[in-house]
Amino acid sequence: MAKYRLDEMDLKILDILIEDARKPYIDVAKALDISSGTVNVRIRKMEELEIIKSSAISVDYERMGYTFIAYVGIFLERNHQAEYVLEQLEAIPFVTEAHITSGKYNLFCKIRTKGVKHAKEVIYMIDDIQGVSRSETMISMEEAFNDKSRLLHKAFRELDLYDFLTTK
Hints:
By secondary structure, this protein is an alpha+beta fold. The chain has 2 domains: 6-55, Winged helix-like DNA-binding domain superfamily/Winged helix DNA-binding domain (Arc Repressor Mutant, subunit A), CATH 1.10.10; 60-138, Lrp/AsnC effector binding domain/regulation of amino acid metabolism (RAM) domain (Alpha-Beta Plaits, 2-Layer Sandwich), CATH 3.30.70. Helices cover 39% and strands 21% of the residues. It contains 6 helices and 6 strands. The strands form 2 sheets. Strands 3-4-2-5 form a 4-stranded antiparallel sheet, with helices on one face. A hairpin with a 6-residue loop joins strand 3 (95-100) and strand 4. It is elongated. The relative contact order is 0.19. InterPro entries: AsnC-type_HTH_dom (IPR000485), Dimeric_a/b-barrel (IPR011008), Tscrpt_reg_AsnC-like (IPR019888), Tscrpt_reg_AsnC/Lrp_C (IPR019887), WH-like_DNA-bd_sf (IPR036388), WH_DNA-bd_sf (IPR036390). It comes from Capnocytophaga ochracea (strain ATCC 27872 / DSM 7271 / CCUG 9716 / JCM 12966 / NCTC 12371 / SS31 / VPI 2845) (Bacteroides ochraceus). This is Transcriptional regulator, AsnC family. Keywords: DNA-binding, Transcription, Transcription regulation. GO terms for molecular function: sequence-specific DNA binding.
């Protein structure tokens, strides 16, 4: 197995993509004074290594009418039901995150809805899942910040300390 180490150019490419995942490779190449082929090859290598898993768009949920955010702590009847309940949660499009947790709740999820009445309907859907004994809901009064890019910039800088094994 060959080893692959992220170098400074990989990190610069990642920095640009963190800020705008849709930026054309030609623009990334121009910003870094390298060829677009080089950008393409490096991004493909990082995708093969699963350092980059996908690119995503960012939307304004408020403009779409999804202004209500709540967090739901879920208690299960039995711990071994977590996988089944997670599959059912994934089928509800208004559940945008779900986590297996330790502590008070077995599962913890985030919902985004069009308002209180809609949130109540979604919470009832969650409570109706076989294996859920009950839930507790916390309403988000305001999202103060939601910034994954700061962590990504730092995490990618730390990645160059490690070797990644590839099959090539």
